[in-house]
């Protein structure tokens, strides 16, 4: 067998420095983050610049790595069977992301369903707990550590608008996709541009909304769960927007064929995933608390 | 920087002559599944020896009452925690999945390499990064103030002990990051395996013709993709609780430490099957090879693993019977947990049925395999005892649990690891090992590890709690046996290392198929070691 | 060493039979549970014995099969391997029989579990409420509430200060005291990290979780001394926060309660007079 000509369509990738460099970059970034948080090696905590070397390094690696992938794609390495592999890979990556969100929803649901086993947030002196009052949050979300009441959002204002924005962006990206498939590159660009703009609008509105929250991140479990779940969603929106933007750039530069445009497909899948996560967030993190806890309605 | 090589057009350019063994770039920049598999194995060996040394420190400490090795409980707890984490994340998983999976999944399914060779390489290189973070954590402050170092909260990382209250220093943050990185590594690796198996089987190799080892890795990979992100989420909550004031697990603020345990074990229980399923696959290959008989009940064997993987996701709270759950919930988890004994029994009996009527060769890998079947049964049935919440109240967090999980891990997963090691040694490294030395390694490990862990059942029943640096004198007797057993295993492990060196020095040339007609999977059709790129002309399966 | 084993195993059997009611401690070389002190613990032991038979039998069965195939079907005894790889009846058998065995286990397991879990429905006068906090690294006990509240901390006796009859790493300065024959309802929580309260002889164990209140119950019929150890990793001194429970006859318990409400020391002094540890050691030997 040795020496026989290659008779298959798989892509045998050439040796590459990016993986080991990437691992080194992550190592640096993690060290930097730990140093930022707690201080290490004589550097006091709170110095944000310690995270820079790792972040910059990693960005360099990602650009280099994905650059190679693009070159390979253009060089014809992404044969039919390789494309199937890449598709499977992207689906599985999204599946793992879904499970990541399961953790955050879990945190939220557990509080919603079993809130009565939790200590009331105002019980801050654990050494002298009021054992009788340990029966927990009689309803949720009630108080914060500082004794303030949690005022939930009215889901039918900004959050509803944001829902519509994301749903709309789901349609525009599909429009762009169909346009690309039939070779209408102009519409494809327009659709993609619209999607990116809608993504940016969503992020902007989310920032506005955060500023108006009637509860704080560190005030109670409710606040933490809310901000982390929507925050991670927001981070995914931003990543998805960048992803779509890169596709737009490639489209403008003449890349992406009607028959073969994996990058575009993946960006679209990712975008739909982000969209679906939002629908769940909207239903359970915004609407349900609003309905089951009438006191929180229309807080301001 | 690699643009020139990266643009090389597909096809025809790949050299069949392997680059020199001593070329640094061959190992650092590898995109070859066999080289990456070797890297994983070397790494696992290195980490395993550290984990092994740590268990020696623990056994020496526990030899007598009083303090022997450590100055205080913190040091002991740190070493215990690191032992658990190293053995699980840096020894068993890299060896079985990264090492053997990388080497033999492509070979067995007739694929030229993994689906994403470059991603394969970062899956590996993230591990040393993660390991470095973990090791570093041992030397940085445990608390915001004071001299104590390292994280000593157990491999299960329960808050508030792992929170600001228990370990306010940077050590725990490094442990969190270490596990984040190890998790990314495993998720990427798992995606790679699933894609490879689903998309790169040789023509004619349907899923139902695929060797059981490939099946086991496929199922394991699914467990990894679904379980690890949940751990990542839980760890992130812990991180923000510690550093940014969130209240997920902080009771003052309405959080609940028990929620962490739910999230952890939702990952943690599938994790234990992640550690054993590849081993199941290895044992199936070996038992069939040396009985010179096809695997008995092939389909049942494959779907038993599917069943174990699936049920594994819905039994997690059997680790939490004492936290104060509702009784109905406990009853559910008791029932669900016990159900896993059924598909596992199917596996045990099918292995025996494979041997039944066979013509068994007692080669070294077969010794490990038979030893495994026996020892895993012992560990498995004590698991069924623990599954019963009513009895678990008496055994939870005692040495009975330690005995249970070492029987399924140290005498289960590790036995499959050594079985695979000797089964594929010639294939991987192109040299023969010395059968006498390998046999001695087996017998010393078999006897020694039983002496270590069998008495721990007695300790547990008598009430000896886990994670104790010191104990009441009545427990000394069995602890001494346990430590003596460790010395026996230590001799065995020394002989294991000597065996590696001996085989390399003597350099007895390996055969393509040393095992005869019983070895029917594709890897045995190749030379030993296989060519740098195999199957340029894909094999066709009838 | 060999003779030592036999001596120890024999001795442990004697001690466990002698001391069953009075004191429950781990014994050197002991092989099984500490002697049960409550009815429930007895039931747990019986159930565990059943399990032990079952798992012992399964393990033996697997071992015998393994030995059989190794002897009968090795290369010398059977040079030509058979080729079968299916046998539906036997596959059904080894699926169904384990299911039946598990059903038998469950049949015993669930009633026991529900019994352990549910505090019996008895008159409040039959119930004694005690609260405990797990703390780094000692236990605090609270009796009564409001103005009548009695509170004391329970610390391990250091090895250098052990009195005759006290057990290293198990004895404490201020034990928890409860009356025999009453239902003790123990509420457990913690003030810093998770701990776990347990007494092996009662077959109870429950985590002490900050911000949560867990309850367990037990009823000890005979007076005696019982030991347990913190059973959830809680930091540096996890190994050094044992639990000691003294069970007294009702009248002595009431006297102790009066004394201890004056001062912890007075309660303790009384306890040592009615239930001196040194005498107990003598009686066990
Ligand atoms: C490889 C790892 C592995 C494997 C395979 C298992 C397998 C099982 N485990 Fe184990 N377990 C661990 C690793 C593993 N475990 C670890 C690491 C811990 C401790 C974690 C920590 O706290 O640090 C633990 C703890 C643990 C607990 C919690 C104990 C406690 O903390 O109180 C429980 C309770 O239910 C349990 C149960 C089981 C069961 C029922 C199985 C079953 O899958 C076993 C099934 C196998 C058999 C039963 C034998 C073969 C079957 C037959 C021969 C058929 C006939 C049998 C019957 C009818 C019974 N395990
Ligand atoms: C796979 C997992 C694994 C393995 C193999 C082992 C192996 C051993 N462990 Fe393990 N142990 C754990 C997982 C493991 N352990 C976990 C999870 C805990 C709980 C931690 C916690 O409480 O948080 C624990 C806790 C634990 C305790 C309890 C500590 C306590 O509660 O206070 C003790 C005490 O004796 C102990 C001892 C040992 C000993 C003597 C071995 C010996 O068997 C060691 C012998 C080792 C070998 C024979 C294998 C050596 C392997 C290699 C050298 C690699 C070879 C590699 C290739 C060929 C590629 N361990
Ligand atoms: Cu308190 Cu362990
Ligand atoms: Cu489990």
Could you characterize the architecture of this molecule?
- The complex is a heterotrimer of chains A (300), B (542) and C (285).
- Helix content of chain A is 64%, strand content 0%.
- Chain A has helices spanning 18-38, 52-74, 80-114, 158-181, 185-211, 221-252, 262-292.
- Chain B has 542 residues and is mainly α.
- The longest helix of chain B has 37 residues, at 73-109.
- Chain B is globular.
- The two termini of chain B are 44 Å apart.
- Chain C is an alpha/beta fold and 285 residues long.
- Chain C has six helices and eleven strands.
- In chain C, strands 4-3-2-6-9 form a five-stranded mixed β-sheet, with no helix packed on it. In chain C, strands 1-10-11-5 form a four-stranded mixed β-sheet. Chain C has a two-stranded antiparallel sheet with strand order 7-8.
- In chain C, strand 2 and strand 3 (138-143) form a beta hairpin.
- Chain C is elongated and about 85 Å long.
- The chains are: A mainly alpha (300), B mainly alpha (542), C alpha/beta (285).
- Chains in contact: A-B, A-C, B-C.
- Residues 134, 137, 195, 230, 232-234, 238, 241 of chain C line the site of dinuclear copper ion.
- Dinuclear copper ion is lined by residues 134, 137, 195, 230, 232-234, 238, 241 of chain C.
